[in-house]
Amino acid sequence: MTEVFFYIFAATVIGGALGVVLLRNIVHAALGLIGSLLGVAGIYILLSVEFLALVQVLIYGGAVMVLILFGLMLTRTRELKENLDGDQKPLAAVAALVLLGTFIAAFANTEWPRDVGQITTVPFNDIGNALFGRWAVPFELLSGVLLVALVGAIIIAMQEEGEQ
Amino acid sequence: MTALLLQESITTGVELQQYLVLSAVLFSIGVYGVLARRNAVLILMSVELMLNAVSINMVAFAVYTAPSMFVGIIFAIFIITIAAAEVGLALGIVLRVFRNRGTANVDEVDSLKW
Q1: Global pTM?
Q2: Which of A36, A47, B5, B52 has its CA 20 to 30 A from that of B63?
Q3: Domain carrying residue A146
């Protein structure tokens, strides 16, 4: 059963990702990204980490995608039939395939330490305890990073006087 | 209800390597997108794919091999947060570039080329 769902979600993730890198319409590519990110949320549920699935849907499916769609809208040029790919496309394909081959070869040649057919479920409250106990300082630092980045983004994108 | 709150081992029929292959494929697609696309927002979207591939990898290793410390899961949360910050900042820069130069294509922004 889990296997069936794994392949469904994997197909969603890969299909959406291929849409992002191959589609000629930029808005369709963004919609493909939404599908891919929601598929990743499904993968998290299969891995028994429901918390991450929720975070994934909220942050990626909601906030990040809205930001990206706004970015697309605000940087849209007149020419709609614009070529979205550079001349280096074949080289990029070779690089990606070589990388993938290296990964697969590495997986095939690795001796896995213990029985890798079993997952250990991760309860919600244990994640909370770990996040606010052992990892509290990095967590607070992270909120600082987020705050600084967002203020910086506002300052960079702000319209200066004299600009049209 | 209490059973849900305890850690338990389940055999799911899906092995660690399958998640690793999925994440490797996703990462390679992201690399292709970053290298082949010329629109800055599409490149950002491909970077998101790569970040998600890394998250899947971390979480898969965490639940399959090292469940007691939650390091992989905490890392995935951190990756998601950093990705949100990165998207905000990068879109600000792209907007600025677009306003100053009238294009969001990275190969036309070549002032540093010599």
Answers
A1: 0.90
A2: A36
A3: 2-80+128-163
